[in-house]
Write a structure and sequence with these properties.
This protein is mostly helical and about 400 residues long. The chain is built from 20 helices and 2 strands. The protein has helices spanning about 1-25, 45-100, 100-110, 120-130, 135-150, 155-165, 170-185, 190-200, 205-215, 225-245, 245-255, 260, 265-275, 280-290, 300-305, 310-325, 330-340, 345-360, 365-375, 380-395; strands spanning about 30-35, 35-40. Strands 1-2 form a two-stranded antiparallel ribbon. Helix 3 packs antiparallel against helix 4 (about 120-130), helix 6 (about 155-165) packs antiparallel against helix 7 and helix 7 (about 170-185) packs antiparallel against helix 8 (about 190-200). The longest helix has about 55 residues, at about 45-100. The protein starts with a helix and ends in a 5-residue tail after the last helix.
């Protein structure tokens, strides 16, 4: 700046010196005439007056422009100041939010939200603060403002809305939000994952089945998890059909399930339960035996005692072979005791059931023991005692079945 001023002064001195030399050499004159009016002066005076006039006009014009620009500059300065304050309060609000001071955080986040260049961050954070205060109406209002003030943020706002709805246990609303987001962005991995979790929590197994192909295709979950979820979903649909006594649906699901799923312990247990409820236990026997040839399942061993096959002695022999490989298993011993009772081997059944109780007391086992004791006359006191113990345990344990 100083250098520029020095250059201007130097140029002015050179021009002034040149003019003085011209005056001495040839002063000249200028004549201006307009109608009856005329002005005569020397060339130097005219030149100086003209330069002064131009400079005066220039500074006047510049001052006028500056005056006109002042409101705009002032507005921009105020906007910049508000923006700086908004950024500072956003930072303070987020820190306060993480510290757990929800009310103060909400107040800070909303103070300059309308002046911020990132209002989305203000409103989303304020929605979380309102959520922590159980203020669902304010929360939803902030989410609406976030949607209205930021173009292209529909997915981000929707994801936060679904998360907050889930946090408030508003599962139906969250499901509607996530389904809408999936319509908007069918390939969004996080939306797919959240949908799968919510469907699973709500036992909406058909929904899980619908979303699994996309989860696998988008590599949202490992292949092993997808297979496990597929099994869970099929079993869940089967159990739901069993609860409704929709036996046609049960058969449809069983027949349509992939072989690997049908051979899973969870699927087989559910299907065997359906067969037993339909008095089709004879069909369940071969399925249980085929599974138990390669794998072990306490649940299937228990169910094996709830069915009666045509070859009862063969059924007992098979259970005894299992018992040699899995000694002291209370569920298998309960099954053996029940089969012995059906085969009218009361003494042996009593011994096995008492052994089962020694390895795990259950109300159901006491009930089976009472039934066996009742087969022999004169055991009324023992029968009553067994029933009482069984009832007490059932009340304490709830559902005693495995």
């Amino acid at each position: 700046m100083m250098m520029k001023l020095l250059i201007i002064i130097a140029i002015a001195l050179l021009i002034g010196g040149g003019l003085m030399w011209l005056v001495e050499f040839e002063p000249g004159f200028v004549l201006l005439q307009y109608g009856s009016w005329s002005l005569e002066t020397s060339l130097v005076v005219f030149a100086v007056a003209f330069v002064l006039l131009v400079l005066t006009a220039y500074w006047a014009l510049k001052s006028l422009v500056l005056i006109k620009q002042t409101p705009g500059r002032l507005s921009r300065w105020q906007s910049a100041k508000r923006l700086t304050r908004a950024n500072k309060t956003l930072t303070r609000g987020l820190i306060t939010l993480e510290e757990g001071r929800w009310s103060e955080a909400e107040r800070l986040l909303m103070r300059y939200a309308g002046h911020s260049d990132t209002p989305l961050l203000h409103y989303l954070a304020a929605a979380r603060a309102a959520q922590k205060q159980d203020a669902a109406e304010r929360r939803d209002n902030y989410l609406r403002l976030a949607h209205e003030t930021t173009e292209g943020a529909d997915i981000a706002v929707g994801v936060v809305q679904a998360e907050l709805q889930l946090e408030s246990d508003q599962k139906e609303q969250a499901l509607a939000t996530l389904q809408h987001l999936r319509e908007m962005s069918p390939k969004h991995p996080y939306v797919l994952q959240q949908l799968q979790k919510l469907y699973s929590e709500m036992n909406e197994w058909q929904g899980v089945q619908d979303v699994l192909p996309d989860l696998k295709k988008r590599h949202v979950l490992p292949s092993s998890d997808v297979k496990s979820l597929s099994t869970d979903a099929t079993v869940g649909q089967l159990e739901s059909a069993i609860a409704r006594h929709d036996w046609n649906k049960v058969s449809e699901l069983w027949d349509g399930a992939p072989t690997k799923i049908r051979h899973s312990e969870a699927m087989l247990h559910a299907y065997v339960s359906a067969l037993i409820q339909q008095d089709r236990g004879k069909e369940a026997g071969p399925l249980i035996e085929a599974y138990m040839n390669n794998e072990w399942s306490d649940r299937l061993a228990y169910q094996y005692g709830l069915i009666k096959l045509d070859n009862l002695n063969g059924q007992i022999e098979r259970a005894e072979r299992w018992e040699k490989k899995h000694p002291n298993n209370p569920w298998l011993l309960l099954t053996l005791g029940r089969l012995m009772k059906v085969n009218n081997q009361a003494e042996k059944a009593e011994s096995i059931l008492r052994e089962s109780l020694a390895h795990g007391e259950r109300g159901e086992t006491y009930q089976a023991l009472a039934e066996v004791l009742a087969m022999t006359p004169g055991n009324e006191a023992a029968v009553l005692e067994a029933y009482q113990k069984g009832l007490a345990l059932m009340l304490l344990q709830g559902d005693a079945s495995i």
